[in-house]
Amino acid sequence: MKILVINGPNLNMLGIREPDIYGSRTYDELIGMIREKSVELGVGVEFYQSNHEGDLVDKIQEAYFRKIDGIVINPGAYTHTSVALLDAVKAVMIPTVEVHISDVDSRDEFRKTSYIRQACIATVSGRGFDGYIDAIRLLIDNSDGKDD
Ligand code: DQA
Questions:
Q1: Percent of the chain with pLDDT over 70
Q2: How is the chain split into domains, by residue range?
Q3: Measured from the CB, is residue 12 less than 6 Å from ligand 1?
């Protein structure tokens, strides 16, 4: 199983940005942690981070042609604004899990809106870095018993 882990704007600033909310570990540490766990879970993982909405759309579209089996996406602030990301996930029909490090529902009112959510099989929010592993497990469970 090939899983693509996408992180949107400002997630490259983990460790620096608002450590009281997002913790002190860096983006590289996040990737290292996911890589390690994915070996245990027996799945292949690839990573992509961009601060640009169109680049994120391009990457989701590319996943379709590359036959990626599942997507884990933390769209950052584009969660709350982007119809383009919603449409991209709908277009590729790849099982996708939305992840947020913080608990978006207990923060600002505008963070309660997620456009992408309706195209995702699940949302994991407020579980810190572990949320990415939860999301991978959900994708594995979702694929069990399906033949392709
Ligand atoms: C975030 C929550 C978003 O509201 C915010 O804009 C982010 C990160 C999270 O991981 O908790 O950039 O997606």
A1: 99
A2: 2-142
A3: no
